[in-house]
Amino acid sequence: SAHMAAGSIVDSLTTDVAAGLYVHYLSSSPELGGEQLDKSGLEGGLALAYPISEGFMLGVKGKYLNADQEASTLGDDAVAINDFSFDAGAILRFGGLALGVTGNSLNAELPEWRKQLGLGAGYAFGTTLVLEFDALLDFDKNQLVPGRRDEVAPRYSGGIELFLDGSYALR
Length: 171
Description:
Elements: E1 2-11, E2 18-28, E3 31-32, E4 35-36, E5 39-53, E6 56-69, E7 79-94, E8 97-104, E9 116-125, E10 129-138, E11 154-164, E12 168-170
Antiparallel strand pairs: 1-2, 2-5, 3-4, 5-6, 6-7, 7-8, 8-9, 9-10, 10-11, 11-12
């Protein structure tokens, strides 16, 4: 069996600093090889963002993880995690062009929190059409290019948003 709960609260209207608080809880007891393996975890965090100017915004998020996994007769060791990490990002806007950068889990060494660098660009053609492109570099050991230990495998994506009648978005 598995149970998950999540909650968040965000305020971006009452002050210049936007703030969001979140918590995620997971509990699972999967059966593996005839044995039940109990896992549970709690992650919580606080995110803050501030517009330095009309075209430049900064944000940071601190996050905390507390998780436990029981030992099993299949050879899995008991695991207890109690760790803190942070993310940071920035957006720079020039007219319809927006450029963004984000760093995830910047000080973490846990496989549950992967160190990543995200880069993005978007261009808005008025209020009707937006083109977007981003790249994600995952510095987790499992995401490296096979056979090349020091190279990171990038992931690319893009999108188009078309707004019809000022109310309907097609993506």
